[in-house]
Amino acid sequence: MSEISAQLVKQLREMTDAGMMDCKKALVEVKGDLQKAVEYLREKGLSKAAKKADRIACEGVISVKVAPDFSKASLIEINSETDFVAKNDGFKDLVSKSTELIFANQINDVQSLGTLSIDGQNFDEYLKTQIAKIGENIVVRRVVSIQTGANEIVNGYVHSNGRVGVLISASFTNPQNTAKIAEFIRNLCMHAAAMKPQVLDHSGFDKDFIQKEKVALIAELQKENEELKRLGKTLKTIPEFISRCELTHEVLEKQKQKLKEELKKQNKPESIWDKIIPGQIERFIADNTLIDQRLTLLGQFFVMDDKKTIAQVLEEKSKEYNDAIKITKYVRFELGEGIEKKVEDFAAEVAAQMK
């Protein structure tokens, strides 16, 4: 590409919040490929708002239904073309009836929904009838249902704007704790709605993802350190690792040996090493799991107690309730996520799904 259009530069700036000249340079470097330009800016630590890269012009609603006894729940995304229709009473009624149908049958895929009966007809025919009445294309984009087993509950939360919904299930041992644990799980759902964890824990990451994120994170920290240095402030540590999945037994043992050598040099009595090292290992893990703290539910610091991770809060609650609470499933839907930004006409996106 010989020339980079102002429109393309503007689009990249909106996606990344990077400087105008940085955006132009990135596009020149990657010959006008928008997605490669986003990655280029991330790797250079210039993307101030990677989260903006997936802004999507999508309307509709996320709906959640949870059984009163917390034995089952469903999470649904239904898309419309415009926000105006999403607020229409006819659309709201469609959402309510669809949610009830999905919940009653514990549906986990849209294809299965199409064959179910609603208002005396199968769902596909019902949806076409509603589209005709409402006057806009509507798509049930995705659904998920969770049915629990013994000593397990599921709870959920949908944000007041209907654009984010979460389901979390958890196992425990004492049935008397059901109500308390259900309330706690709902708080975790609210945390997840706000903080956007992508996966439950580090096991949800693959090797390629970690390597890619490491390059971007280190570049980001180095860029921040340039500003901190200019201001005469303490620089941030550049981590060797970024996720718990990288901290193998060998890595942790090597760090323990390193800490022992340091304590020996400091002439600390060997009898107190066992009291010092665990805390230092805990700090080492915290410093080298930054991606887990950003993107995993268990690794994030709890919004209601920001000194502790969700994993630590779970451990504390288990002790408080004399129980063993463990999260078994985590699902989060945000309206429109995953639809490519390049689909500028969302009506066309919806129509394509209808075929």
Automatic annotation (TrEMBL):
- Its recorded name reads Elongation factor Ts
Describe the location of the Translation elongation factor EFTs/EF1B dimerisation domain by residue ranges.
73-225, 239-337
List the keywords (alphabetical).
Coiled coil, Cytoplasm, Elongation factor, Protein biosynthesis
UniProt-listed Gene3D superfamilies? 1.10.286.20, DNA helicase RuvA subunit, C-terminal domain, Elongation factor Ts, dimerisation domain
List where this protein forms a coiled coil: 207-269
SUPFAM superfamilies (alphabetical): Elongation factor Ts (EF-Ts), dimerisation domain, UBA-like
Question: Region labeled Involved in Mg(2+) ion dislocation from EF-Tu — which residues?
Answer: 82-85
Molecular function GO labels: translation elongation factor activity
Q: Does the keyword Coiled coil apply?
A: yes
Where found in the cell? Cytoplasm
Matching entries from Pfam families are given as: EF_TS
Function statement:
Associates with the EF-Tu.GDP complex and induces the exchange of GDP to GTP. It remains bound to the aminoacyl-tRNA.EF-Tu.GTP complex up to the GTP hydrolysis stage on the ribosome.
What broad class describes the main subcellular location of this protein?
cytoplasm
Keyword set includes Chaperone: no
InterPro entries referenced in this protein's UniProt entry, alphabetically: EF-Ts_dimer_sf, Transl_elong_EFTs/EF1B, Transl_elong_EFTs/EF1B_dimer, Transl_elong_Ts_CS, UBA-like_sf
Describe the family membership recorded for this protein in Swiss-Prot or TrEMBL: Belongs to the EF-Ts family.
* Gene Ontology CC: one annotated term: cytoplasm
